[in-house]
Amino acid sequence: MAAPIKAVWFDFMGTCLDWHSSIVTALPSALSETEKSTFALEWRQAYFDANTKRLAEGGPVEDFDDTQRRVLDDFLDRTPNLDIKHLFSPEVKDRLVAAWHHQTAWPDVSEALRRLKNDSKLEVYVHANGSTRLQLDLVKSAGLHYDMLFSSELLGFYKPAPESYQATMKLLKLKSDECVMVAAHASDLKGAKAVGMKTVYVYRWTDDIREDQEVVRMANDAYLSDMHGLDRVIASF
């Protein structure tokens, strides 16, 4: 008999937060809306690629802002559109990095958290790569409430390394079959499933832009188009 679910862990940016709108707003006004959106999506993917490379090389956890600034500089150096590089002054770069600290929640998230916490009586946590300061700023700007914020900076490991999930479970005194990971990132859920957690994929158009969604659907315990009904799905585990 399966153990009852006690806790739900959420990836943060992309899964719970609309990072795309914040970054698009902070980009130079000389860019078209299409250029801004494309730039934001590709910069975000470049950040994921940099973290994957860092994890594969066994590098230490890096401050989120430092990573984003470095990735932004590298991304601009590689961009084929040389006409836009002059738009990114040091002040613009500072504004863009700061924009990651102020995001709004997707409209379905607040109610999903309320149902899990108040109706289902489950513990809810953020478990995300990034810094603790970043997460504190984001819960304030988004108006969301969790029982605890776990960052890669705090844990000393990046997802999807198994040590990241294991460290949080040890701190919370929870077993893997008592936990559910919710994310819009297939790699996060692959790591969670590898340590024995249940996994729920929530599709967000801003994330996993390279993933085959049918493959993702088959790889997880549940696949949702949004967080409506998340509590019922978790109750079925």
Automatic annotation (TrEMBL):
Task: Write out the entry's keywords from A to Z.
Answer: Hydrolase
Q: Name one GO molecular function term.
A: hydrolase activity, acting on acid halide bonds, in C-halide compounds
Would the keyword Nuclease be found if you checked this record's keyword annotation? no
**Does Transcription appear among the keywords?**
no
Q: Which Gene3D superfamilies match?
A: HAD superfamily/HAD-like, Putative phosphatase, domain 2
Q: Which InterPro entries match?
A: 2-HAD, HAD-like_sf, HAD-SF_hydro_IA, HAD_sf, PGP-like_dom2, S-2-haloacid_dehalogenase
Q: PANTHER family of this UniProt entry?
A: HALOACID DEHALOGENASE, TYPE II (AFU_ORTHOLOGUE AFUA_2G07750)-RELATED, HYDROLASE, HALOACID DELAHOGENASE-RELATED
Per the record, the similarity remark reads: Belongs to the HAD-like hydrolase superfamily. S-2-haloalkanoic acid dehalogenase family.
Q: What is this protein called?
A: Haloacid dehalogenase, type II
Species whose genome carries this gene: Capronia coronata CBS 617.96
Please name the taxonomic classification of the source. Answer: Eukaryota, Fungi, Dikarya, Ascomycota, Pezizomycotina
